[in-house]
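Structure ticket #2291
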Amino acid sequence: MKQITAVYTVLGMIFLSTGCSICHADDLEARKIMEKVNDRDDGDNQMSDMTMVLIDKNNNQRRRQLKVFSKDKGKDTLTLMFFVYPSDVKNTGFLTHDFDDPSKDDNQWLYLPALKKTKRIATSDKSGSFMGSDMNYSDMTKRALKDYEFKFYEKGKQKKVENADTWVIWCVPRSEQIAEETGYDKVLVFVRQDNFIVTRSLAWEQGTQYLKFFDVETLEKIDEIWVATQVSIIRKKGKSIVHKTILNLENVRFNQDLSESLFTIRKMETGL
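Resolution: structure written out below.
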């Protein structure tokens, strides 16, 4: 299953996009590592509860609660998220059909209950913020590896992140269009060597002076599946924190009896 539930998704986000002029050619060894990141076992038919904490530069906090459902459909992934708290976002739904076929654009829809309106997220809008968080819509799906070139930051060297050895890899889009869709100029990722989990990244936002820092704060093994149960995403300008998002995942359950009929616009509009 290609995890695209928000905590999981950022694991995918961090190696997706960069307009990095540092990288000029694909490194086959780095590509093989990223293929293992992409192909690792991440379970199927998953349900979980998520807390999203939004923190501004003055340390003011907004807390949101979500229910998340995800299911494989062949090599594709279906995900449905419902906001359940607070009242101003309650019953907001977000549906994603993430296609494995690189020739097909992933489908995303956002349901706004106050307007009783479902909006399809256009490709040109996928670099926009997801519900005021530090993730954008492109972060909520995985990109085709064939669209990117990969190169080691320093080949033959490794860096420890939370006492785990990691490979450090640059990622480069093969076209300007891909960089524009994802909203990042360049991304540097840190891949754990023992389990192929991306545990840290630095992303340069396109056309701005902002840097986005991603860190897996807590990593747990649930039903033999590695799950990032706490993730922080921090946007900085220089040394100043502009905004921060904390994602906490609880009650993670795999192998649930989820029907494909759950992952439809009709169900998203009906709600829990």
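Closing remark: Residues 1-23 have pLDDT under 50 and may be disordered.
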